[in-house]
Design brief:
Length: 423
Amino acid sequence: MVTPVHDLIGIGFGPSNLALAIALSESRAPALSALFLEKQPSFGWHRGMLIEGATMQVSFLKDLVTMRNPASPHSFVSYLHDKGRLADFINQKTMYPTRLEFHDYLEWAAARFEHQVCYGAEAVTIQPVPDGDTITHLDIVAQRGELTTYRARNVVLAAGLRPVLPPGIVAGERVWHSQELMHRLADLPVERPRRFVVVGAGQSAAEVVEHLHGRFPAAQICAVFSRYGYSPADDSPFANSVFDPAAVDRFYDAPPETKRMIMDYHANTNYSVVDLDLLRELFARAYREKVAGVERLRVLNLSRAVGLETRPDGVSVHVRSLVTGEVEALGADVVVYATGYRPVDPLDLLGAAGQYCLRDEQGAPLVGRDHRVRTRPELRCGIYLQGATEHTHGLTATLLSTTAVRAGEIVDSLASSVLEPVQ
């Protein structure tokens, strides 16, 4: 049996590879056959954090297409028009749709490319296919009920983010990562929870605290973090320009010490920071409760969660004060760790193909400006990365901000040098 060969196989079908599918469909270059493998049974993007009322932190103009092609029929504006809500959205006078609405937009766009996606297919490894002294094809082995092999001339890895828990912490019935919030709340182990503990100081942590505080009016919500207070995100115009497409060029061309400086200076545009309006709302709630003498929202700042005990009827979180060193055992029904994410390591997926990829002094893959991994000359296939290139392309690597533009750059690279090795 002859294995069909695709010009491109995309691993993962979240916003990044969805944007790539759209860019391929809109390209004026000769058509490339593409197939996408997605381990989820259907399209979904951070479903566990689709909190009612929570808004996006980026403008709707940074959708899947607009920064690349403002006239695209796959834009958020086209979605609104198709749904009959364009005038209503305009009347809101906002640039930031709710997360629920933006997710609906992504599903709307993804539905147009279902014929190119194998859902329920989890990529396991990638194997080179030798042809004499060169390698012109890659076999992607995926688990889809049984192991299935797909062959391609090029691969685009967009496997997304992996939730991070502190060392020694294992998720369970009463121990959650914030990414599972809405799913877990649907199966809450107690009918009337008395206390939640939320560990973390970023946007997700603040959203979890706000949601739990409003949803369970009889429960105490304890927010644990090592800072004095939640830090506001710097979304001022000059700082936000670090997410512009032109900033990717500047970051890529910068020497290593400048790259580190940029990351240090501007980490507060994205990491461990909170939208200012949400921060103010939480402070106002805490203040009102102080006035009323009922402290349902308890902020344990300058503190760190240092231990955890699980019991059939709850958990006990050990919280140490960074000022006094004293440890308090907080009994709770549930502890939620809003402790962030890290990109899936592409080298974990590359398998035997990884030996052909060149790496820097830290062991990270060397990546060209066109998002193609630099490889040994005998590998003629293109291996492209989406979302695991912060070390080369800057802060936007894991964000929506340049997703549309990046997809276009990858399509241009595929069209111009689809079988040429990157030197």
